[in-house]
Amino acid sequence: MQSLPSSSLSDTIATALMQRIVNGTYGRGDKLPSNAELCEEFGVSRTVVREALASLKLGGRIISRQGAGVFVSDRVQKMPAMAWPLPNIRACLEILEFRIGVEMQAAALAAQRRTPDTLQALYQAHAAFAEQDTHDPEKEALADFGFHLAIAKTAGNPRFAEFLQTTIAEICRDLHTKYTESAKHSAAYFAQTVTEHTEILAAISDGNAPLAQTRMQLHLEDGLNRYRRLLSTAR
């Protein structure tokens, strides 16, 4: 029935559910659909659904209540509109500093371990982002995250994807912040991001691990420098 390994299917479902939590489809305290409903919606087995929910529980995004079902944790909420308070900027800077080392290594390993299937998924994620110029920061942030998650999966080590999935709310808050902050120049900023993603993808596709690592570093450090400028201006 399933053409992908159960781990890949569970990752896909976990990401889809987490995106719904982040974008507010499932709000804080809301009950998620039952396992049977999720099995029917995604066309997978109960085992796959249980694995997807387990990864979200591990990240503290959902909780189980005996006899009642699975609910969104109270700590998860829809990404707020950014008013640029310093704590938000600092939080985004902190998560980006942490991401850089992880994602540089993921990009290098992706170049070394890519397969036809993972490359196809990566190209699809890139295309999905490139087509996303909607001027909707939230949608663009989620599509941007999807590209980075596809790189993590291409790395061939499930820990990279697990890291991104357990920090999706924080990462998407960072991305949402950048797209909101760049709203006045959204077309140019979006085009620049597409170009940087294209360069990373080309290096991975060519199997050039050092170049993939360097391009990922430059891509993420651009955002890091933007936050540092915002902090220095706000002081």
Automatic annotation (TrEMBL):
<protein>
    <submittedName>
        <fullName>FadR family transcriptional regulator</fullName>
    </submittedName>
</protein>
<dbReference type="Pfam" id="PF07729">
    <property type="entry name" value="FCD"/>
</dbReference>
<dbReference type="GO" id="GO:0003700">
    <property type="term" value="F:DNA-binding transcription factor activity"/>
</dbReference>
<keyword id="KW-0804">Transcription</keyword>
<feature type="domain" description="HTH gntR-type">
    <location>
        <begin position="7"/>
        <end position="75"/>
    </location>
</feature>
<dbReference type="InterPro" id="IPR011711">
    <property type="entry name" value="GntR_C"/>
</dbReference>
<dbReference type="GO" id="GO:0003677">
    <property type="term" value="F:DNA binding"/>
</dbReference>
<dbReference type="InterPro" id="IPR008920">
    <property type="entry name" value="TF_FadR/GntR_C"/>
</dbReference>
<dbReference type="InterPro" id="IPR036390">
    <property type="entry name" value="WH_DNA-bd_sf"/>
</dbReference>
<dbReference type="Pfam" id="PF00392">
    <property type="entry name" value="GntR"/>
</dbReference>
<keyword id="KW-0805">Transcription regulation</keyword>
<keyword id="KW-0238">DNA-binding</keyword>
<dbReference type="InterPro" id="IPR000524">
    <property type="entry name" value="Tscrpt_reg_HTH_GntR"/>
</dbReference>
<dbReference type="InterPro" id="IPR036388">
    <property type="entry name" value="WH-like_DNA-bd_sf"/>
</dbReference>
